[in-house]
Design goal:
20 strands, disordered N terminus, six-stranded mixed beta sheet, six-stranded antiparallel beta sheet, mainly beta
């Protein structure tokens, strides 16, 4: 069954800031929502998930370098659920489902295909499975879903285009692992990877093409704009933490496209590194 945009299925639009598979997905599969020990979980369309005890759970935030503490294996992105009467979450702006004991369950479920019994009363989600070559797009926010990333206004510029001083950013960067983007000024539209470790003083070795002036505006994120980099998710794995210091807890990803051009609509298209799919690590 393909996501249609109707009922419980995710509308795969470019303005949807939850996660979506953009290319090289591994197909769709219906799976139960985890019921481990009666700790029933709520899952959202557009959420990254992993295998749990007897179903799927949020992939969650990475713990340790390359998530070596949790060793979670990404399974896929939720694109729908089997609730007949859909439930909507106003925080994530998407539909959701909560697992419950199937025994004597009176909730009406529909649409499930595959090997599952038609009389089964299990809460289930439709997952677009992913692998190392799958391109995934997700939104970037600050401390919570929907929190807009901070802009920095330049207080000291550079005639050489080598950096600037501005008000404090929302995180402490790591050299060569963060990106700044010019939103106002002569360098409008330019991305640069930063070499500093300061919240206020930004430096680049790849100089900007024009002078940086007082009043210019920049957006900074804790992700490289291309190639291999580190990335952190929120605990529900519904968005990318744009203001995260990429130093201790992170997934390793390859960035295909980082778009910081519009405030509130920042996004990143990426692939998880192969190491995250190594079953031996779990």
């Amino acid at each position: 069954m393909k996501p249609t945009g109707n009922g419980g299925f995710l509308r795969l639009q470019e303005d949807n800031m939850l996660f979506s598979v953009q290319e090289a997905g591994l197909g769709l599969v219906w799976v139960p929502v985890d019921c481990n020990g009666g700790s029933f979980d709520t899952l959202y369309n557009g959420q990254l998930v992993k295998s749990g005890s007897d179903g799927v759970l949020p992939l969650g935030a990475a713990s340790g370098a390359a998530d070596t503490s949790t060793k979670a294996i990404p399974f896929g992105v939720i694109v729908g659920n089997n609730l007949k009467e859909q439930l909507y979450n106003s925080t994530y702006h998407t539909n959701y489902i909560t697992s419950k004991s199937p025994h004597d369950n009176t909730t009406e479920y529909v649409s499930v295909e595959g090997p599952w019994g038609k009389g089964d009363k299990s809460a289930m989600v439709l997952v677009h499975m992913i692998g190392p070559q799958t391109k995934i797009r997700g939104g970037l926010y600050g401390s919570s879903f929907g929190t807009v990333l901070a802009e920095q206004t330049v207080t000291t510029g550079s005639a050489a285009g080598s950096g600037y001083t501005a008000g404090a950013a929302g995180f402490t960067p790591v050299a060569d692992l963060c990106t700044i983007y010019c939103r106002k000024g002569a360098n409008l539209g330019c991305y640069r990877i930063t070499t500093d470790t300061s919240t206020t003083v930004r430096t680049v070795d790849h100089y900007f093409p024009a002078d940086i002036a007082i009043g210019d505006k920049f957006c900074a994120v804790g992700i490289r704009h291309s190639g291999s980099t580190y990335m952190q998710l929120d605990s529900e794995s519904t968005y990318i933490l744009g203001e995260n210091r990429p130093a201790t807890n992170y997934f390793i990803v390859t960035v295909e496209k980082l778009d910081l051009s519009e405030s509130g609509k920042e996004s990143c298209t990426f692939r998880f590194a192969t190491c995250h799919f190594d079953s031996a690590r779990a």
